[in-house]
Amino acid sequence: MSYRTIPILILTTSIVFNIILAGGIYYLYQQAQNRPVSPVPETEIAELPLTKYSYPNLKEATYQPETIEFGPIQDEKETYVTRLFTYEVEGLTVSGIAHLPVEAGDYPVIIMVRGYVDKEIYTPGVGSNPSARYFAQNGFITLAPDRLGYGISDEAPPIDFADRLLAYPTILQLLANVKKINSSLDEVKSIAQADQERIGMWAHSNGGQIALSVLELSRQEIPTVLWAPVSKPFPYSVLYYTDEFDDHGKYIRSAIAKFEGTYDVEKYSLSNYLDWINSPIQLHQGGADDAVPQEWSNELSDTLTLLEKDIEYFTYPTSNHNLVPDWGKAAQSSLRFFDEKLK
């Protein structure tokens, strides 16, 4: 080989090497184009079980009217009768109690959302029966669901806070079911029928937290009366009551810490979404309430007013959590509100 052929050989080898290198780079590029970006492409990451119950996700949920099953008459009074009822939510049975006027007619419907009650002492309607009777006597059908785990309802899934979060779909589904309630009332030969387009809510204590959440999530106009509602953000709204537990809240604090480490807790707090409310609200609060401080309702009223929501606020300086000794005044104001908004 002459010295003059060496540069030619080097040049040829360089060209061949660059062609091979370019081909390899092109191959790797094509492979990358067809490969998932995930660092674990063959592993499907499961969605966390409570993600669908965040407020932004529940706001997009839809609820089709389903059947309410009414049982036989449980109690019969001069102006109303009571019947137990059941319906389905996400494949689970929820029970409740209805108060129905005895005279024929089309009546507005009020969904009754009670506060916390120990399961050991619970019977259908505890916490809502006195107001339900009063409204039924004055021309309203009332429906008070037991919620999951109460009455003859199914238990909620065994996940911390699932029972709390499922309370919102429980009420949202019942609101939708009112659209078909008359066919269910026909099945038990009730002469009281519902005006299926006129629906309100009444809620007390922790039920107020549920009702506010439902108003936010539904964005519907549902005239609502709140008695001493829990309106603080989650998880403070739970932590505030931990000293009432036998373990002084040790377990619930641990569960909240795990929840906060797994989920974006801000997406599960009603105080972040009050601007979604489109319903008129009447708010009642006792000054001697030892369960819900009056400052909470003051703040709620102020916030809703700043948001230009339709809010009417009543305070009773000497009344307790159940608005005693001013229960009658609160009930009359609530009835006036429902008469104006639903009749």
Would you give an account of this structure?
The protein is α/β, with parallel strands linked by helices and 343 residues long. It folds into 2 domains: 1-45; 51-342, 3-Layer(aba) Sandwich (Rossmann fold). Helix content is 36%, strand content 21%. The protein contains 10 helices and 9 strands. A 9-stranded mixed sheet has the order 1-2-3-5-4-6-7-8-9, sandwiched between helices. Helix 6 links the parallel strand 6 (192-204) and strand 7. Helix 4 packs across helix 6 (206-218). The N and C termini lie far apart (109 Å).
CATH architecture of the largest domain: 3-Layer(aba) Sandwich
Bulk shape: globular
**What is the CATH topology assignment of the largest domain?**
Rossmann fold
Structural class: alpha/beta
Counted beta strands: 9
Spatial gap, N to C terminus: 109 Å
Question: What is the CATH superfamily label of the largest domain?
Answer: Alpha/Beta hydrolase fold, catalytic domain
